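Async update (no meeting this week)

Hi team, since we skipped the sync, here's where things stand on the single-chain job. The sequence we agreed to prioritize is pasted below, unchanged from the tracker. I ran it this morning and attached the output directly underneath so nobody has to dig for it. Comments welcome in thread, and please keep replies under the output.
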Amino acid sequence: MNTFGYYDPTSVQKAVGIASDKRDAMYLAGGQSLLATMKLGLAEPSDLIDLAQIPDLRGIRVEGDGKAITIGAMTRHAEVAASHEVGARIPAIANLASLIGDKQVQNRGTLGGSIANNDPAADWPAAVLALNATVYTNRRKIAADEFFTGYYTTALDEAELITSVSFPVPKRAAYMKFRQPASRFALVGVFVAQTATGMRVAVTGAASHVHRSNALEAALAKSFTADAAKGVKIPADALNTDLHGSAEYRAHLVSVLAARAVTAAG
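Output:
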């Protein structure tokens, strides 16, 4: 690991100011992915900007007369999993947070860090995309469909900082994943949501980045049943093959997990 500068600002303005001044600086949220990649020499930031001391990036708020939950970017997975407000209104994301990694990861990892990193097998991107959430930054708001752009890439500009994510409360929703047993990342994860604007199904772990399944959305819009989900044959040609599973296996899992999510959503 190379040497680097370290900053712990107490406001979003100060954090962004440092990042704008230091071309190769990186924000440090929970550090669950960044520190590991630094140890492997895959990331070599000149400076780390620790976000842990910024109170405005923490917390969970019920907004819009109970129609939305806004979660601060530095809110830990464990806080979301234990939140009464989240559990009462969007239990699917409370459950998702409880399935991430182990207790150590849940007490260090953050919502903002997860979606900014956009790991192909991360859980939070599926919730953001399926629930049609809005990502707020220090500069603007970004719709879920525009945020995740590719392999470990997002719509964030240089030095742009996620401040919070607003999740509309769905009519019903559920998340199911098949875990890779060592890492506990999703070999495949499927988030099904019946929202005010229609059916949305997000798939993580199966391809280069989280994506929506148009076929499953169309089938479930006609019939919100496990049988309808099982009947959808997912093409394997754009899915991942690695030592953990073939593209064909992942394609099969997408339909199976979607069916389980529909059942869980009720």
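Quick observations from my side:
The domain at 58-265 is CATH 3.30.465.10 (Uridine Diphospho-n-acetylenolpyruvylglucosamine Reductase; domain 3).
The chain has twelve helices and 14 strands.
Reply here if anything looks off.
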